[in-house]
Amino acid sequence: MTDDENRVAGLLLAAGGGRRLGGRPKALLPHRGRLLVEHAAEVLRAGGCASVHVVLGARAEEVRARATLPDCALIDNPDWEQGMGASLRAGLTALAGTDARAALVLLVDQPGIGPEAVARVRRSYRSPRSLVSAAYDGVRGHPVLFGAEHWAGIAATATGDRGARAYLKQHADAVELVECGDVAEAYDIDTEADLTHLE
Description:
This protein is of the alpha/beta class. It has six helices and nine strands, in the order E-E-E-H-E-H-E-H-E-H-E-E-H-H-E. It has a seven-stranded mixed β-sheet, sandwiched between helices. The chain has a two-stranded antiparallel ribbon with strand order 2-3.
C-alpha cells in the first residue's frame, strides 16, 4: 500500500434516527451478534481504510456508551435531523483537519456491502482529485470515494438526504465506476420489512 493509499480515511455515516423504523437509530440495530455501527466500522477497517471516522447523531450518547469502536474517531452531528447531507458535511469538516487525502464513505444501513467492495473502491484512489463510486450492474451506489479536492464542493451542495448526489451528477464525467455487484448487495435497512436482512 502506498503512502497516499494510507491516507484514504473511512467515513461512516451513522447518525440517522430510523424514522421509518419507529425511531430506532440504525447504528444500534443488532447484526451478527453486534451493533450495526460496529459491523460497518469493521468493514471499513477490513477494507483497508487507514483510519475510520464515524458520524453520530440520533441517541449519540447511547451509541457511544454501547458500541465498541476501537481506534475510531467519533464525530457528533448536532444537525442529524436535517438528513444525510448534514452528516456528510460534518464528516468532511472533521477530515479536513487531518492528513487524509480522500474519504471513503459508507452508510451504516447497508450491511450487504462488505470489505471486498470497500477495498475495490479504495484501490481506485489515484490522487486528491479522485472521484470513485461502487456500481451495481453499472448503476452508481455505495461506497463512494471523494478526493480531498472535492470536499468543499460536496459540502456546499450536500443538503437533505441527497448527500453528494448533486455534486456527483455535476461531475459525472469525472466519476470512475467500480463494479461491485459480484461481491456486495446494496440494499438499505429503511423499513420494518428490511430488518429480515439483519442476522
